[in-house]
Design a protein that fits this description.
With 343 residues, the chain is α+β, with helices and mostly antiparallel strands. Helix content is 15%, strand content 13%. The two termini are 33 Å apart. The structure holds calcium ion (2 copies).
Length: 343
């Protein structure tokens, strides 16, 4: 694997824009003005959810969706083998245990090597040479420009999700601002792996067809993105895991809260012939039209930024490419396991 391509610090000034464009589209797709949302909802109960993975029997399901975004089709009968999967997104509490045990330092916390930018050093904005990550920063005006709501914030990391001036991470919120390598390191330590897209969608669908309806039981965005968040689902930003009802598999926040990274490289659309425990395209076949310079990984399920006017991706079938070299404030992950996890 061309690791040098996957580093945050390999992003050129030009491709930072591309990367932020990805973020913007993950946050999501342009559309008609949004509805006026209801008043802020009553506080939600967020019980502590057990960490023990859930065992899923294998099966066959209809993967994909044909009538929303082009990259989600065609629908194909897809078979996956049985596996275990985390009941919730990996939390800061879990990631902190990993860091405490190993001393691991994430990509967002490491110095940036200016040589990996493909422009002269004097053209690199100084802030881009500081450790940091991309933070959603909503404007107070309507906008379709991703640069109005995504900012590279020096000092932002999983420990300080909003940057050095913001609050510390909250233990029961999903860990964010991780690059692919960070997630892989955690997975190895925890004895799991990043699920394939097919496994993830099978687990998220739980026997139901994906429908393009904004769910009540998911943390998404009510109101007109990006400047009016009605917060009627109880959370303006990320929520602790387990605040919304689980799906029929007993899995929480598969849809919404944070996007979840899968193991598959991204290409628009599904290969109808690759339907038996598919692993997605190989690295050489990966193609992300929004970020053609590097092999993106596939993310699933939308986030707290998905709104009817800008991103109808609060569905199991939703998928986008994501630069594996840097994290953001709206992308996390959960693990799958091939055998019963120990402990
Ligand atoms: Ca919300
Ligand atoms: Ca999620």
């Amino acid at each position: 694997m061309a690791n040098s391509m996957l580093r945050r610090s390999s992003l050129s000034i030009g491709t930072l824009g591309t990367a932020l464009l990805l973020l913007a589209l993950a946050a999501c797709n342009d559309g008609a003005p949004g509805e006026k949302a209801a008043a802020v909802g009553a506080p939600r109960q967020c019980p502590r959810i057990a960490d023990a993975p859930v065992k899923l029997a294998g099966g066959t399901f209809d993967m994909g969706e044909d009538d929303v975004y082009d990259e989600e089709g065609p629908v194909r009968k897809t078979t996956v083998r049985g596996f275990w999967i985390d009941p919730h997104e990996v939390t800061n509490r879990q990631f902190a245990a990993f860091v405490k045990a190993t001393g691991y330092v994430t990509v967002a916390e490491k110095p940036v090597d200016p040589k990996q930018f493909k422009v002269p050093a004097d053209r690199i904005p100084p802030d881009m040479l500081k450790p940091g990550s991309a933070v959603f920063t909503p404007p107070d005006f309507p906008s379709n420009r991703y640069t109005d709501w995504w900012k590279y914030v020096p000092g932002a990391s999983w420990k300080k999700p909003y940057g050095p001036q913001g609050p510390d991470q909250v233990p029961n919120e999903p860990v964010v601002h991780l690059a692919w390598d960070d997630m892989m390191a955690y997975a190895k330590w925890a004895g799991g792996r990043i699920p394939t897209e097919a496994e993830w969608e099978y687990a998220a669908s739980a026997g139901k067809r994906s429908k393009n309806i904004q769910p009540d039981e998911a943390n998404s965005w009510q109101g007109a993105f990006p400047n009016y968040n009605a917060e009627s689902d109880g959370f303006k930003g990320v929520a602790p895991v387990g605040c919304y009802k689980p799906n029929a598999n007993g899995l929480y926040d598969m849809v919404g809260n944070v996007w979840e990274v899968t193991a598959d490289f991204f290409r628009p659309g599904h290969d109808p012939k690759d339907s038996d425990d598919p692993k997605g395209p190989d690295e050489g076949s990966a193609y992300d039209p929004l970020n053609p310079g590097m092999p993106s990984r596939t993310v699933k399920g939308g986030s707290y930024l998905c709104a009817p006017n800008y991103c109808q991706r609060y569905r199991p079938a939703s998928r986008q490419g994501r630069d594996p070299g840097m994290g953001t404030s709206n992308v996390g992950f959960r693990l799958a396991y091939d055998k019963a996890p120990v402990g």
